[in-house]
Amino acid sequence: MQPDAAFSPPGEIPPSATPGRPACAVCLRPQAACICRWITPTAHQAEVVLLQHPLEVSHAKGSARLLHLSLARSLMAIGEVFDPALLQALISGPLQPQAPSARPSHTLLLYPDSPPHQAPGLPAPPVLTPAMLQKPGGLRLIVLDGTWRKSRKMLCLNPLLQALPRLALHGLPASGYRIRKAHQPDQLSTLEAVCAALAQLEGSAAPFAPLLAAFDGFVAQQLACRPGAGKMLA
Ligand SMILES: [Zn+2]
What we know:
- By secondary structure, this protein is an alpha/beta fold.
- It is 28% helix and 12% strand.
- The protein has helices at 64-70, 84-92, 148-157, 159-162, 190-202, 209-225, 229-233; strands spanning 3-4, 47-52, 74-78, 106-110, 139-145, 166-167.
- Strands 1-3-2-5-4-6 form a 6-stranded mixed β-sheet, with helices on both faces.
- Strand 2 (47-52), helix 1 (64-70) and strand 3 form a beta-alpha-beta unit.
- The longest helix has 17 residues, at 209-225.
- Mean pLDDT is 82; it is low at 1-17 and 230-234.
């Protein structure tokens, strides 16, 4: 549960790695399944903090690490219940130790506002006002990387997250995320959701098109690696 600005914490198990098989030091996957060719350096304004549920760490299909490796102003931390001091630092502290004065003016939680996803019994979040969104470069976006059920649990277990204004996505295209069962057409992967959120905040989707195109390649690679994929093609 350590912040992971550039590399994973010591002892993290690389996704799908098996003992004796060398893992890529960057994407942490087995060399044969390395996804580094899809890393697409992408200029973006708002900072992104990815809070990854521990059950997502070993998911080969997960998109959060590819996203983190593509976004310079991002950080990844793994946990379900976060130490409040650590979480507070992730919410309002400097992301980069070399720039200790760089704190966000506002931190938002990327979370849907539609009723099915609301967690009953939780206090209503602070209202997101247009004034908060005027300068995307001063914003920090907290993103929960997990299934909807796990994301809800993370929200319930971490009161500091409940106190954040929420940013919801609107007018989304259908997801290209064919490797996981989506319950709704607009249920996006973490990478797609964050690209959509950054595009919404910055008022332009163009900067994120190359990363989304690379993500299509990542999805195709994961589909090709699935057991039985060859048979389906035959
Ligand atoms: Zn790699």
